[in-house]
Amino acid sequence: MTNKQIIETKRLKLIPTTVNDADFIVKLLNTPKWLKYIGDRQVKSMDEAINYITTKIRPQIDKLGYGNYTVIRKSDHVKVGTCGLYDREGLSGVDIGFAFLPEFEKQGYAHESSEKLLAIGFYDFGIKQVNAITLPNNKASQNLLEKLGMKFIKMVKLPHDENELMLYQIKKG
């Protein structure tokens, strides 16, 4: 699998995020839930989004072949969210993460895209274990992680983050 490949599920396409997604990234990174549960990335303009994609998102995709994917609904080609496998500072191994625009929540898109990325991570990239982190008050995220088969392991703190986070894991089985 190359980093140019489109990943497909029944209802979705996952395409590696590029600068062509900058307007979408500005919108997503400034939604109330992103700001509350993930944090303010200070991406308020197209230029800031292009810089964020170029310096934070693309290097990992180019280096490892996987990273952040823009999730697009097949039926109407609308960008609904992001899902990705990340090499996150402060965590040993790969981390899965997801975020969706409010109008596309509670439709199963996060589960569908995350489940597919876990399978690809395990079988195409040979990843043995995938982590996930979430704030203790983010019950929706915890429910999804558990639905994916992930188990709560312990509380952790990441570098440059004052929040204590719940660490979940799943191993290739």
Q: Report the principal-axis shape.
A: globular
| Percentage of residues in strands | 25-35%
Secondary structure tally: strands: 8
Roughly what is the average pLDDT, rounded to an integer? 94
| The CATH topology of the domain at 7-127 | Aminopeptidase
CATH architecture of the domain at 7-127: 3-Layer(aba) Sandwich
Describe this protein's structure.
By secondary structure, this protein is an alpha+beta fold. It is built from five helices and eight strands. Strand 5, helix 4 and strand 6 form a beta-alpha-beta unit. The chain starts with 6 loop residues before the first strand and ends with a strand.
Q: Tags for this entry?
A:
173 residues; alpha+beta; Aminopeptidase; 5 helices
Task: Give me the secondary-structure topology.
Layout: E1 7-8, E2 12-16, H1 22-29, H2 32-38, H3 46-64, E3 68-73, E4 79-86, E5 94-100, H4 109-123, E6 129-134, H5 139-147, E7 151-156, E8 165-171
Parallel strand pairs: 5-6
Antiparallel strand pairs: 1-2, 2-3, 3-4, 4-5, 6-8, 7-8
Helix pairs in contact: 1-3
